[in-house]
Amino acid sequence: MLLLHGFGAGSGHWRRNAAVLAEAGWCVYGLDLIGFGSSSQPGHQRRQALDNRLWARQVQAFLAEVVQVPAVLVGHSLGGLVALTCSVYFPDWVRAVVAAPLPDPTLLMARRRTPRRRPWRRRLQRWLVHLLCRLLPLELAVPLLAHSPLLDLGIQSAYHHPVIGDRELHRVIAWPARRPGAVRALRAMSIAMALRPHRATAVSLLRRLGRPALLIWGRQDRLVPVEVAQQCRRLRSDLELLVIEQCGHCPHDETPAAFHGAVLGWLARLESG
Length: 273
Hints:
By secondary structure, the chain is α/β, with parallel strands linked by helices.
């Protein structure tokens, strides 16, 4: 089992999960995605966009070189999108996918028919995204956020129950943001994610998904509302969905017992079926 963290976090965010899942009989790995945690923090490169396709290739390489067998991918938020991407691009390396939850702005626009953009419009969009991302004062905003109480307020927005004062959680989020390459990597992934082709969006990936998948959502998720889960189900009616009450955006960390029960129970049913 490979655990994939969400945006702004690292493998340390699985602090309440890895040992429990290992005790249940799984060989558990955690991975810091490129740009996060202890991984490298590269800048924008045209030939190697820092988006979910690159992270999926990183996951596949880790599975091939380290794990050496197909794995269950369990992802939180952005990690869920990466798990889904890897399962579509490299299905032979993925047994099943758990996304808790699955974020992607394209899911909110899935029912709109978007005509194919003309080349000049694609070039204009690319220019505008690059301009906006270069004008944003990230060199000021990121250090200010990483070294101020604003970070605790940002973390709290992802939780339903109070977590301000949780030093371990604060360190998991703050340390990567304080590294020298954090601003460079944030700008690179902002550009790359905004300019992804349609085939790399959750809407397209869900339609091509060929592996069993479980969605886990917190009822009180303010960052990715549970309505997004219903849109996922409209795209793929065979998706299994579990909604955890009294839980925000981080079910694995906020309600770990319910999270473990959902994941292990679902995997047991897959094995028996």
